[in-house]
Amino acid sequence: MLRTLWCIEPIWAEQHLPLVQSFLSGQFPIQTNEDDETQTQDPIAGKTFAIAAQSGSNYAVQNRYALDDPELPDNSVYVLDMRGVVVKESNCCSIGTEEYARLIRQAYAHEKIIGCVGLVDSPGGQLSGTPTLYDVIRDPIKPFVVVVNEGLMASAAYWYSCGADYIYASQQTDQIGSIGVYIEFDDATEAREKMGIKRHTIYSDRSSQKNRPFRDAKEGKTELIREDLNQAADLFRAAVEQGRGKRLKVAKKGGPDVFEGGLFYAGKAIELGLIDGYGNLETAIAKVAELASKPKGEAVEELPDDHDETGDNTPEVVDLPDNDDSDEPTASVEPTTSQSNLISTTMSLFGNPHKVLSGLAGVEGSKITNEQLNAANAELDAEKITGVRVISTTYLEQAKQSIAALNQKNAEVETLTKERDDARAEAAKFGSQPGAQPTKSEKVEEKITTVEKDTYISQTDADLAAMKAQMQ
């Protein structure tokens, strides 16, 4: 509970905090009964099952099968009960994201399973493992549909759910969203000082940046820890934009922005494009069967443009099969089109080895960062794919413009060079005519005589030379 980051609705966390604190302090008794058969029961039992997707049947009363059941009918849909707090590792009470991912991969690989349905009621939970489950759900090998099972789809639960082809709410009171990241911690410094406890923390001279965001936050300087939170929030946003695509509605002036962390009731979530309508288990199974009947990689129609203020933006309401044993709604808002993430790509039955490359599908080029491009090229290098690189169309257009400008410059240089050569040729014609060369007047150089000054060894020699000069 303490060693990882969490993406969880704070109301749920606050309600369970006393239980967590009592457990950590040793005051919460853990009772076990080795004779109780439920203690050794497989936690997966009852949490997953398969139902035959036969049109016109009442799915609520159909038999439920395990994946390894030899009597499992053809064209079955695998249903996962994904309610509860999201955790990475399974325990005696719940299935972790690691186990969910494994089960979904097994279902994708099963020849009798045509797709999956997730029943979600969760406040969110552990960050670790959530992106992996999102990748598995979004894998286009087989369709995946999620139903908010009359409750909550918040934070980490929405993160992995938005990788599904469709998301339905079962009731108007369902709440969806809480897309955001925050951190909360207790500072017990003053309490320890009152108890006479003084803590000394010493860091190596070579570890000045270790735990710095946390240390600064305790001193009231939150810039570094906010920067770290912003990175996680950006990853969350990228997953939602990738998973929901064009169905997300752009925030209008003065209206709610889904990426600011708000939690919305089902009707508003439909309006904002967070989910696709109302439905129940029958609705989800029918949608899986519909998507599975389409050829793999079949092109899907583009989403229609938003209606103007005078247009009718009311979704179509369709009847659902009767279900006498359920209080679930009898109407569903039918989305206008299937999700465009049913892309044609090579995938492994054990997951997508090219998460970054396939993750860029459907993302607008202007929103792809240099880091994502570098990561995609790193995947190509890892697969020893040489001579191929992923680049932005913006860079490609800039390169084309640079090449065009260079070609124009070269053309200008060639034109000037030709003009120069033509001018020289024309000048050469005039140079061969009489008078072309100017008359030159040669200057006779005067001979300059340099008289060197005599050098005398002694003053006597100098005096004798002077007397000789006078006599001459």
From TrEMBL:
Residues 141-292 form the Peptidase S49 domain. CDD domains: S49_Sppa_36K_type. GO terms for molecular function: peptidase activity. It comes from the Bacteria. Residues 300-311, 319-328 have a biased composition (Acidic residues). GO terms for biological process: proteolysis. Pfam families: Peptidase_S49. This is S49 family peptidase. It comes from Spirosoma aureum.
